[in-house]
Design brief:
Elements lengths: L1 H33 L4 H4 L2 H21 L6 H10 L4 H36 L1 H27 L11
Helix pairs in contact: 1-4, 1-5, 3-4, 3-5, 5-6
């Protein structure tokens, strides 16, 4: 249990620094955009409504974003660029970051222990498992890239 607590604590510090840093970069980017040639677009009524909605209701989205893969950075950056107030952002960061750290600490350590035992007891099976996982990941990336490159409506299958 000490291993999980230590890992979760370290991951929590990492996620607070990373997500908080992303929020700060978003805040600075938003401030820069407000002083740039985009200032006219940003001052539109539609944008102002969106900004107020994010400032008011964005905290739950930030908290839940920590349970997703790939959306977390965007949510934190957007919260910063849209100037979400810190009293709303920080609780979402602390809660979402804690959930993220606990999930990765428990599941991550569990997977490492399983792989460690597999390699120790059956090295060939361990190597094969890692190879299959890597091939599956590479296949998924290639599939998604090819699918994204297809023109809309094209299924990639040639008809005779």
């Amino acid at each position: 249990m000490d291993k999980v607590a230590l890992t979760a604590g370290a991951l929590y510090v990492i996620v607070l620094l990373r997500a908080g840093g992303t929020f700060a970069v978003g805040w600075l980017a938003g401030a820069g955009a407000r002083r740039s040639r985009f200032a006219g677009r940003i001052s539109s009524a539609k944008f102002q409504r969106a900004e107020r909605a994010i400032q008011r209701w964005g905290a739950p989205v930030v908290a839940v974003s920590f349970l997703t893969v790939g959306f977390q950075t965007a949510a934190n950056f957007l919260a910063g660029s849209m100037r979400m107030p810190l009293p709303r952002y920080l609780p979402a960061l602390f809660l979402g970051g804690a959930a993220w750290a606990l999930i990765y600490a428990t599941a991550g350590l569990g997977m490492l222990e399983v792989l460690g035992r597999l390699f120790a007891e059956r090295t060939a099976l361990g190597v094969a498992t890692v190879a299959v996982l890597l091939l599956a990941a590479c296949g998924a990336v290639v599939y998604r890239r090819r699918r994204a490159a297809l023109p809309s409506g094209d299924t990639g299958v040639e008809e005779p």
